[in-house]
Design brief:
This protein is mainly β. It has two helices and 25 strands. The strands form six sheets. Strands 11, 12, 14, 16, 17, 18, 21, 22 and 25 form a nine-stranded antiparallel beta sheet that branches. Strands 1-3-4-8-6 form a five-stranded antiparallel beta sheet, with no helix packed on it. A four-stranded mixed beta sheet has the order 2-9-5-7, with no helix packed on it.
Length: 285
């Protein structure tokens, strides 16, 4: 016998903002489902990722006299797009129910535990446009989980290009709201685009101009593809673009990771107060 069960999930999220580590990133609805395979006297408990990008999950179940655990996978676990992994193999002593006996608790976050942290990102500015770094690692506005975010001081309406190829999984550009003093409510008004790379790195572009997206959810974008326009929405001290790349930590939190960029001067880690230009512009439109 084979059957499926979609659980209500707890989504842990950190929505991005310019200056507060406690602010949060977008999270999709639950994309990981629990499935079961009954084979003889065993019940195999699996997690199925229904999304087109990697997701990381952890599943806890209750102890019960009605079954014993023959196998338990290492958790949390990253599940590739459209893939299923075995989490528990239970020896069934008596018939049991999911809700009353198993009592499953599922947590999930879009993204991967391991990403390519040596990837060379493209600067998000257009060819010939100076990407002026106004804030980066170690600055007061980028602390804690947002330690490795980068802010580019760009005039409102500047074209923003994809730093890496991937799948667009969130677009929010309906906000016209800006505030100079941080509040959690204002932080939610930062217009944003989120792109999931093939390895599960989540690339966030924030504070975009109202109604400025050139892509929509489900689009697969190439590196250097036009995404939107920079703006001044949400909590921001002035027009700029905030970018960060996140992965999932072993304690199921979203954390930023260091970025290195291909520039006209070579592959570099960016420094606050410096201006950079995109590499290879003679070959890129």
């Amino acid at each position: 016998m084979k059957f499926n069960c979609v659980l209500a999930t707890l989504i842990l999220s950190l929505l991005s903002g310019c200056a507060k580590p406690a602010s949060k990133h977008f999270f999709d609805e639950g994309v990981v489902e629990m499935t079961f395979d009954e084979v003889d006297d065993s019940v195999r408990v699996n997690l199925l990722n229904t999304a087109s990008y990697p997701a990381t999950s952890i599943l806890e179940i209750a102890d019960s006299e009605k079954y014993s655990i023959k196998y338990s996978s290492e958790q949390p676990v990253t599940i590739a797009a459209k893939e299923q992994v075995l989490i528990y193999d239970l020896a069934m002593r008596q018939p049991f129910t999911v809700e009353e006996d198993l009592q499953p608790w599922l947590r999930q976050i879009p993204g991967s535990l391991q990403i390519d942290e040596a990837f060379n990102y493209a600067l998000p500015c257009g060819c010939g446009v100076s990407c002026a770094v106004s804030d980066t690692s170690g600055m007061p506005s980028h602390e804690g989980w947002s330690k490795f975010a980068v802010d580019f001081a760009l005039p409102e309406g500047s074209k923003i290009y994809a730093m890496r190829a991937g799948l667009v999984i969130n677009v929010e550009v309906n906000s016209k709201t800006n505030c100079r003093e941080y509040t959690r409510e204002c932080d939610q008004h930062a217009n944003r685009i989120l792109v999931a790379s093939e390895d599960g790195a989540m690339i966030h572009y924030l504070h975009l101009k109202h109604d400025s997206a050139f892509v929509q959810v489900g689009d697969r974008v190439k590196q250097h593809q036009l995404l939107g326009l920079s703006g001044d929405t949400g909590y921001a001290t002035g027009p700029h673009l905030h970018v960060d790349v996140t992965k999932v930590s072993t304690n199921m939190m979203e954390v930023t990771t260091p970025m290195i960029f291909s520039t006209s001067e070579g592959v570099l880690k960016l420094s606050e107060g410096e201006n950079y230009f995109r590499a290879g512009c003679s070959a890129v439109r």
